[in-house]
Amino acid sequence: MNRIRNVQDFVSEYAIYIVLFALVAAIAAYDPHFLSLTTLRDLLLQNSTRAIIALGAAFVLISGGVDLSAGRVVGLTAVLSASMLQAEDYPRRFFPDLPQLPVWLPVAIAVAAGLLVGLLNGWIVARFRVPPFIATLGTMVAVYGANSIYFDMEPNDSQPIGGLRDDFTALGTGSFAVGPYSIPYLVVTAVAVSALVWVVFNKTRLGKNMYAIGGNPQAARVSGIRVGANLLAIYAIAGALYGLGGVLEAARTGGATNNYGNMYELDAIAACVVGGVSTSGGIGTVPGVLAGVLIFGVINYGLTFIGVNPYWQLILKGLIIVFAVAVDMRKYANRQA
Amino acid sequence: MNHISKSFPGVQALDDVSLRVRPGTVHALMGENGAGKSTLMKCLFGLYRPDAGEIRIDGRPVHIRDSRDALRLGISMIHQELLPVPHRSVMENIWLGRFPVRRLGPLSFVDHKRMRWETVQLLERLGIDLDPDAPAGSLSVSKTQLMEIAKAVSYDARIIVMDEPTSSLTENETAHLFRIIRDLKRNGTSILYISHKMDEILQIADEVTILRDGRLVGTWPASELTTDLIISRMVGRELSQRFPKRDNQPGEIVLEVEGLTAADRKSFRNVSFTLRRGEILGIGGLVGSRRTELVEALFGLRPLASGTIRIRGQAVHIRSPADAKLLKMALLTEERRATGIFPMLSVFDNTWISCLSRFERAGVWLDEKTGRKAVGTLIETLRVKTPSLRTKIRDLSGGNQQKVLLARWLLTEPDILLLDEPTRGIDVGAKYEIYSLIVELARQGKAVIMISSEMPELLGMADRIMVMCDGRVTGILDGRTATEEAIMRLATQFSD
C-alpha cells in the first residue's frame, strides 16, 4: 500500500523526466543511430535559444503572469542586431554607410530593447493593474508594428536582412574544441544563462519574492514586499532574455526578418507548462523548464530523424501539453488538504 | 459512517473513525484543528474518497463519489470557506447547478420568474433578509454566510453539514440560525455541526462526537457534557486556565492616532487612541464595525482621508506595508489563507520572506545558512509543530500556520504588533500557546493591538479594550474592570 503510493508519488514528481526518457528510448528503439553525439549536439544547438526564451517566460509565469510579447520581442531584437551587423561588402545593407561596429554594441542595443519592452510590460501590469495577458497582448501587437516599420525603412524595404558578419554568426554557429569534441558557443551561452537564472530563482531576494508574489499576491503585499517594483524587475529580465534569444536566433540562422520569433511565446509557455510551471503562478523550476524545452526538441528532431510526418508531430505535441498538465493537476488535487 | 480512514502524504488524517447520526438531531463534531473534523465531513460530501470504511444512509451502504452524489442522497453542506460566485445575484448563487427551467420544445430556458419566487419563499420561510437580486460579492461576510445557509437548506436535504457556520455571524444572527436549526430538526432533518464555540455546542447539540488526532475519542449526549469536559477530551489533558497570567508592564506611548478617517467614508471615522510600550490594547466590536479596516489603514493597506499617526512622537505617513515594516510595525491579518500564507512555499521561505534584505550579502546573495539558523530558533521557541523547515506550510494545521506567520513578523523585530483575530479558527490548546506568546511579547516591551470578536478573549488578554461600532470608537474600557455587558453595550451603540 505504502510502496504503491511511493511509486505513484515518484511517477508524478518526475513525470516530465520520465516522458523525456521514454521518448528518447522509443525513438532509439526504432532507429538506434539516434543515440549519437551528433544527435545530442544538434538537439542542444536547436534548442538553446528556445531554452533562453522559455526561461524568460518562466519568470513571468511563476510570478503569476503570462507574457505574450516574447515572440515579437525575439523578432524585434533579431532585426535590430542583424541590421547593424552586416558585412561591409554585402550589396544590400540595411545601413549602407554604417561603420563596422564592435559586435557587443549592437548585441547590447538589441538586448536593451528587449529589456525596455519588458519594463513597459511590467509598468502596465504593476502601475495600472492591467491583467498580464492583456498588457502583453497589447505590446505583442505594437512591437510587431514598430519592428515592421523599422524593417520597411528605405533602403531595406522589407527585404530579409542577410550577409551577417562572420564574427556575429559565430555566436550562433561557432564552437571550440575540447579534446575530440567541439562545443558550440550557443550551447555554452544557454547553459550559462540557465545557471544564472537558477541562482536568481533560488538564491536571491528577487527569486524568493517572485515565488511569493505568484503564490499569493495579497499575502506578498501584506508581508511588506514591494510587489510593483518586483514585477517591474521580473518583466524586464524576461524581456532581456527574449532579447538575447532574438540576437542568438539571428546569429544562428544568419539572417532576420520581422516575422522571426512568430509564435515563440506559445512554444515557450508550452515548454514551461510541460516542465511543471504552474500557469496560476508560484511554482516552477529551472531544470523542469529545460526538460520541457528538450521534450519538444526531441519530438521535433527525433520524429523527423525517423521520418514521421511533421503534422503528426504537432498532434503529439498537443497531446503532451494536455497530458503533462493533467498529471500535474492530479498531483496537486491529491494533496489538497 | 463506519471505520473511515483517510491519509494524505505524511499524515494519517482519519484513522478508523465511526459516526452515527440519528434523524432529527443536531450532532456536534468537535476536536482541535487537524483532528480530522473537516476531512471526515469532506469524505461524507464526496470531496475526498476515504481509503477504507463505508457510509450507510438509513442502513443502506452508499457510494459517494462526488458532491453531486452527496446532494442526490440528501446531504448538503455549508463549507468553512465561503465560495460565492461574486458577480452573480443571490438567487443565482442559491440555485446554482439546478436552475428552474422552462421547456420550449427541445430547448430549455432558465425560468427567472420562478427562481425569484422560490428564493423569496425560501428567504421568507427562514426569516433571512436578503435581496435576491443583489450581487453576492456585495454582501458582507455574515450576509454571505446567511446566503450559504439558505442555500444548504434549499436542497431539502436530510443531512446538513455545517462547518463553522457562525464564524462570521453576530450574536443575533447566531440566535437566528439556531431557530432555523430547530425548525429543521422538527422536520426530521439531521444537522452535523462543527464549531469551536463551546457555548454554541452546549446550547444546540443533542449529541457530541469528539475527535483527536484523526481518531475517535467518543460520542456523548450533550446533556452529560460541560465546557471543561469537552476541552479536556479534545486536548487529552486537563486545561487549568484558558488565559495565561499577564505580567506585562505598559510603559511610554509609542503610537498615537488622532482623528483618523478612511478615504472611503463608509469605513471608520474620527478614530483616536494611544498605545503604550508593553501594552495589549484589545479592539472589540461586532463584525462590520470596521476594526479590520482600521488596522489595515495603520499598516498602509488602505488610504486615509485625514488624521495623524505618530510613532514614537514622530508624525508618519504610511503608504504601503513596506513603509509600515520600516517603522517596525507588523500585521497578522484575519484571513490567514487569503492574505497570510504562501501555501506552496516551505515553512522556512514563509518565515523569512518579509525579512530577506537582512540576509542579503553583497547586495545579491541570500545567506540561507544564517537564515535557517534564525528561523529555526524562532520556530522552536514558538513550538511550531512541523516535520522540518522544508515542509510546505499548507501541510501544517491552522494553529501552526498562524504561529509561522507570527514568526514571520517576529523575525522583523517589530515594536508594534497589529493582530487581527489572532486565534480565529484555531483549536483550544494552540490558542493558549498563542495567548502566552502575545503576553510574552508585551512583557518584552512590544506594543500589541489585538482585534477579537470573542469577548472572553478580550477580557482575558487586554490591558485596555477599545470598542468600535459602525466605524467609530464608542469607548475605551479598562481591561480589569470591563464586563461582557459593557463591551456589548458599546458595540451596539449605533445599531437598531
TrEMBL record, chain A:
InterPro entries (alphabetical): ABC_transp_permease (IPR001851)
Keywords noted in UniProt: Cell membrane, Membrane, Transmembrane, Transmembrane helix
MF annotations from Gene Ontology: transmembrane transporter activity
TM helices/strands, residue ranges: 14-30, 51-83, 103-126, 133-151, 183-201, 268-299, 311-329
Subcellular location, record wording: Cell membrane
Domain of life: Bacteria
Membrane topology: Multi-pass membrane protein
Gene Ontology CC: one annotated term: plasma membrane
PANTHER family listed in its UniProt record: ABC TRANSPORTER PERMEASE PROTEIN YPHD-RELATED-RELATED (PTHR32196), GALACTOSE_METHYL GALACTOSIDE IMPORT PERMEASE PROTEIN MGLC (PTHR32196:SF18)
Name listed for the protein in its UniProt record: Galactoside ABC transporter permease MglC
Organism expressing this protein natively: Candidatus Reconcilbacillus cellulovorans
Taxonomic placement: Bacteria, Bacillati, Bacillota, Bacilli, Bacillales
